[in-house]
Amino acid sequence: MLVTGVARQLGGRFVRRIQRDPDVDRVVAVDAVPPEHHLGGADFVQADIRQPTIGRVLAETGADTVVHMDVTGTPLGGGSRTSVKETNVIGTMQLLGACQKSPAVKRLVVKSSTNVYGSAPRDPAVCTETTPPKSLPSGGFAKDTVEVEGYVRGFARRRPDVAVCVLRFANILGPGADTPLASYFALPVLPTVFGYDPRLQFVHEDDVIEVLRISSHEPRRGTLNSGTFNIAGDGVLVLSQCSRRLGRPTVPLLLPAVTWAGSLVRTLGMTDFSPEQIRLLTHGRVVDTTQMRETLGFRPKYSTAETFADFARGRGPGLLPPQALAGAVDRIAALALRGSGHPPTQSAN
Amino acid sequence: MADAKVIPFDDDRSRGSAVQRPSRRRNSGSRRTGTTEPVPVREVQPLPVRGAAQEDVSVTQEEEPSGPPGRADDGGLERRIAGGLAFLRRRLTGDYEVDDFGYDAELTDQVLMSVLRPLYEKYFRVEVKGVENIPAEGGALIVANHSGTLPLDGLMMQVAVHDHHPAGRHLRLLAADLVFVLPVVNELARKLGHTLACSEDAERLLGQGELVGVMPEGFKGIGKPFSERYKLQRFGRGGFVSTALRQDVPIIPCSIVGAEEIYPMIGNAKTLARLLGFPYFPLTPTFPWLGPLGAVPLPTKWTIQFGEPIPTDGYPPEAAEDPMLMFNLTDQVREQIQHTLYKLLVQRRSVFF
Q1: Burial of B37 (C-beta count, 10 Å sphere; 0-12/13-18/19+)
Q2: Where do transmembrane segments lie in this chain (chain B) (predicted)?
Q3: Which of B97, B98, B192 should we substitute to test contact with A (largest number of A Cβ atoms within 10 Å)?
Q4: Of A11, A326, B68, B341, which shows the fewest CB atoms inside 10 Å?
Q5: CB distance A333–B204 less than 8 Å?
Q6: Band of the pLDDT at B93, cuts 50, 70, 90?
């Protein structure tokens, strides 16, 4: 098995996990930079997937399963947006080219994102795998994923003998997540777009690892693990709910101001607060996960709310911790009850 | 055919009994059977128990008073305060549920409906007829006429179903995409359970057994000039019929009288509308001449009548692809609504009373 993008937390975790599976003989971990975390005994090969060397690596190792996790939105370390885009798009092209040449490859798993649906007010409220996006993402990571999926579809046509699984993950959160949304939620005060309360869906890191594992093995009885699947936790949280559960106050800003500030911050190179990110935090996005349940046979352990709760536990309390607010309301309730001269038979439950 | 079904509903009767008859079916109306004069019945009738209780005590957000009426006043107040604080606590800590469409049932029931209810009861004095035509469970598609420059008719229809249906059903409205582009409006619409008028969303909601409301006239209906009031416009492309057929849910025609006159649109500033990106920019006798004051709707008297359901389950599965059947069913629904509109207009004594 060959895994790309292992220098990231998620890739590293997946490599460590997959080696414990009995039907995995050998894991070859590939990335352009050596990972800081250990890989649990996997063979690390330092190779840039943008270079044709990946073809040689694949031919030498004779891997039968390729898990492509190097489709990401943020640069690792101090890379620029250009290098991320190159890794995403050129890297995928090189990897797919290498896979096409290698007769040993039987299975390809690609980590994609629900970003491919874009985020527009004119989209249906819930996107299924077949929903065409009303407005294609204009740039950034979302456009990369659209292009990557396009190349993967082309590859699937040319190599019908390879089982291809594209997993469109909703926003990945968890105690160790390093996604742009996680860094957004880490801000002490959350800037929001005035007049919009987007619906968000999250998927827990543990579930990500598990679903990658399911799709990189032979399908279990009664399930099919080739195709395109939306992966998200059950349920929906709106942004205001998230901020309250985190205990972080929000600052509603007008949309033009947010766009302007976002581009300013981007120009200064402080964070990657991309336009898609702003669109997501304006209009939100919810995907349908029927296919994930019924075809892929995967049931996420964490719902959206549980994922968020787990993420919130990993962060410190915000400026307005929900417990403190709840306590304050309870005290008022107690006061009101005492004031009315009745025994506090029913407190605010 | 469709007309014949509707006519005996409350035609051929004197006005007094026509007004009273449907009122007996409502639980709030049935408690006032002693009243014989139709006019006071009309005014008091639409007050549901909850709304009446809310005005007694001026607490902003309270739970439904569930205590027995014989209890002391302060006990009820205390209960209500406790309920209100529990609600506040849940809101502040984010401990509430929204569905995939962003529908916030708690907020809708306790806050947004309470905001709309005075408009519904006191301002437009909406009279609801035929609410028993809405099934107690399972999906159904309510198709209504659309008018009034601003989509207040949809909101009033939602309050009507919410407050009068014995099973306490929630109406999920399908709204134009403009609603979801505008800030604030989109947020409130999502929380009220509205979603984009597209077949995907409608089918998903109907598949979940929800009650879905649609106004197929769209902007053609809501933005038509005052001179064309109560003339139904084209019903889109009949997409609502194929949606109902695919989900095997009945279509309930709904006629709303009174909404046409709230903003008599005597002109349309097309250039301004194009600049602002709106489908029309209304000019009424008061708007925009009187500024924000001109945007106050006229206090017309409304009637919302839900008609007899048109079943869609007798058709073969491929019927949803049959354009001829689509057009026929669309016309049937349209004619039934138009016919009921005319009947209600004949029964109406005046626009304002």
Answers
A1: exposed
A2: none
A3: B98
A4: B68
A5: no
A6: confident
